[in-house]
């Protein structure tokens, strides 16, 4: 197969493969050549070496093969912060910023918050960065994901306590003012798992290998014993799951049960408050 980019061409003359999004093309050119967006203009007459052309060709081919751009460049922005990402973690998505905003509105001064299934640490790190007074704990069952999350906390200069835990197993008797989670909620066999970026992301972070509600049930059932009186539980879920999640919360005695919509108008987060004990 001939390379997509030939050595000796200039930056200005780089051609985008027809099937590739122009923004993706720009990101990959910048990444391969170590240039900023401005650098693409100021270095427009730079001539690519053989190594640079081969490196860029390889990156372009990976994207044409469907690999997510975030995995190729190894990072993604979330809530105004840069996060390392790898195939060990889900790629942070803009719609999850709604969960962060709702959490910040409900987090009291010096509040204690638990992020369940933290993955890259995006939610926990965003909360800790915005509210340095908060005591933030984050857990995940994947050691590889926790390693990524710990590096993201360090890179963004925040303090987060990370726990290796299968949901609540390592939490013991600790209580929190707020529990948040973006758990696996795609049902087994859902066609979306075989489409787009999801093909490359860790299956265990996407699907519960059941009806899509099993992880949400475990969180709903276990959270009351770990929430301070009046504390909130907030969970991201699938586009068609808000009614089911509201029913789970109501059945467990949560109050103020409601759902919130993302910018696309999709009911993205559902939550409720623990009862007074």
Automatic annotation (TrEMBL):
Domain Methyltransferase small: 96-190
GO annotation terms (biological process): methylation
Residues holding S-adenosyl-L-methionine: 117-121, 140, 167, 182
Enzyme Commission number: 2.1.1.297
Transmembrane stretches, start-end: none
Keyword annotations: Methyltransferase, S-adenosyl-L-methionine, Transferase
Residues that, per the record, bind substrate: 182-185
Catalysed reactions, semicolon-separated: L-glutaminyl-[peptide chain release factor] + S-adenosyl-L-methionine = N(5)-methyl-L-glutaminyl-[peptide chain release factor] + S-adenosyl-L-homocysteine + H(+)
Enzyme class (EC, first level): transferase
Location of the Release factor glutamine methyltransferase N-terminal domain: 23-74
Molecular-function GO term, any one: peptide chain release factor N(5)-glutamine methyltransferase activity
Origin: domain of life: Bacteria
Function: Methylates the class 1 translation termination release factors RF1/PrfA and RF2/PrfB on the glutamine residue of the universally conserved GGQ motif.
Family: Belongs to the protein N5-glutamine methyltransferase family. PrmC subfamily.
NCBIfam families, A to Z: hemK_fam, RF_mod_PrmC
Protein name (Swiss-Prot/TrEMBL): Release factor glutamine methyltransferase
Species name: Pseudoduganella chitinolytica
């Amino acid at each position: 197969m001939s390379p997509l980019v030939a050595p000796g061409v200039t930056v200005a003359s780089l051609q985008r493969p027809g099937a590739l999004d122009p923004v993706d093309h720009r990101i990959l050119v910048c990444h391969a050549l170590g240039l900023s967006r401005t650098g693409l203009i100021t270095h427009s007459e730079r001539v690519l070496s053989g190594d640079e052309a081969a490196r860029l060709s390889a990156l372009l081919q990976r994207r044409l093969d469907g690999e997510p751009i975030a995995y190729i460049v190894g990072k993604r922005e979330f809530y105004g912060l840069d996060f390392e990402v790898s195939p060990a973690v889900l790629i942070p998505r803009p719609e999850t910023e709604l969960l962060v905003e709702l959490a910040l509105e409900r987090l009291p001064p010096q509040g204690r918050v638990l992020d369940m299934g933290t993955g890259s640490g995006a939610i926990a790190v965003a909360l800790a960065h915005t509210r340095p007074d908060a005591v933030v704990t984050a857990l995940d069952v994947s050691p590889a994901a926790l390693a990524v999350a710990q590096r993201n906390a360090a890179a963004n200069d925040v303090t987060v306590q990370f726990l290796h835990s299968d949901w609540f197993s390592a939490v013991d008797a600790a209580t929190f003012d707020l529990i948040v989670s973006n758990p696996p909620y795609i049902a087994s066999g859902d066609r979306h798992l075989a489409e787009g970026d999801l093909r490359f992301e860790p299956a265990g972070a996407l699907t519960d290998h059941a009806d899509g509600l099993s992880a949400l049930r475990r969180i709903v059932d276990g959270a009351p014993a770990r929430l301070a009186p009046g504390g909130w539980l907030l969970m991201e879920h699938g586009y068609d799951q808000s009614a089911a999640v509201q029913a789970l919360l109501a059945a467990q005695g949560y109050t103020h049960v409601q759902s919130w919509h993302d910018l696309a108008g999709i009911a993205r987060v559902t939550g409720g408050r623990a009862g007074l004990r």
